[in-house]
Amino acid sequence: MSEKSGIERRHSCIETAKDAAGPVVDRAGMFRRGAFPGTGERMDFFETHATDLAMRAIEGLELDDPREITHLVVASCTGMSAPGLDLQILRRLGLDNSVERTLIGFMGCYAAISALKTARHIVRSEPDAKVLVVNCELCTLHLKETTDLERLLTFSIWGDGASAALVTSEPTGIRLDGFKALLAGDADELMTWNVRDDGFDMVLSGQVPATIQSVLGAYRGDILGNRAVEEIDLWAVHPGGAPCSMRSRRR
């Protein structure tokens, strides 16, 4: 399944054991065959490692003065606590205590879009606002021992990563013109993400690619704002596996 995913490399905050086929999967000894960690231990790991990963993404922005940040929008669905990742970022960056924080949790893959949309709404209502948007996910933290194909599919696709963006009303950089969100009919059960005793449990149905193709075909005009496909020079399609990307290209 990994070979057919079309993904050359995935990253993880979990260091693989020298003998990954042995009784212990990781170097820290958290994932022992027959005794994988519970949700509490996984959340402890998230608190320890997520902030470091998020800060690496923020450093890539090369902010002139972080103290100019007025709003912080953080999105994550792979870990949670209170005080959470948003407050940890505020502390590490040395942001003012008056910075307005918004945490977008458990929205899955499209949370980054919701975070950018939220930032856009903020700067449209407050032109002087400078909104730092951060997305951070530790997907491999929820590795499970299973033979279920749909669960194995999720483990073959997603890894760990973080991204950051600064959204302002200044006429520079990439312009956020608009957003469009559509529900795919009665497809709620095709992708699920639930908190269980042994971590978060994700199910990705093999029907997702075909459903995406169907929705894109039916609502293409709404999604593109009635523009022709040829008018758009660059596409960034969320790679939920090679089949999703290929089905999107057909539409």
Write the layout of secondary structure elements.
Layout: H1 39-59, E1 71-76, H2 85-93, E2 100-105, H3 111-125, E3 131-138, H4 149-155, E4 160-167, E5 191-196, E6 199-204, H5 208-218, H6 220-224, H7 242-250
Parallel strand pairs: 1-2, 1-3
Antiparallel strand pairs: 3-4, 5-6
Helix pairs in contact: 1-2, 5-7
Keywords: Transferase
InterPro entries: Chalcone/stilbene_synt_N (IPR001099), Polyketide_synthase_type-III (IPR011141), Thiolase-like (IPR016039)
Pfam family, one: Chal_sti_synt_N
CATH topology name of the largest domain, in short, is Peroxisomal Thiolase, Chain A, domain 1
Task: Extract low-pLDDT stretches.
Answer: none
Largest sheet: 4 strands, mixed
The structure class reads alpha/beta
Rg estimate, integer Å: 20 Å
SS element count, helices: 7
**Major sheet: arrangement of strands:** 2-1-3-4
Feature tags:
single chain, 251 residues, alpha/beta, Peroxisomal Thiolase, Chain A, domain 1, 2 domains, two-stranded antiparallel ribbon, globular
Protein described:
The protein has 251 residues and is α/β, with parallel strands linked by helices. Helices cover 31% and strands 16% of the residues. The chain contains seven helices and six strands, in the order H-E-H-E-H-E-H-E-E-E-H-H-H. The protein has helices spanning 39-59, 85-93, 111-125, 149-155, 208-218, 220-224, 242-250; strands at residues 71-76, 100-105, 131-138, 160-167, 191-196, 199-204. A four-stranded mixed sheet has the order 2-1-3-4, with helices on both faces. The protein has a two-stranded antiparallel ribbon with strand order 5-6. Strand 5 and strand 6 (199-204) form a beta hairpin. Helix 1 runs parallel beside helix 2 and helix 5 packs parallel to helix 7. The mean pLDDT is 90.
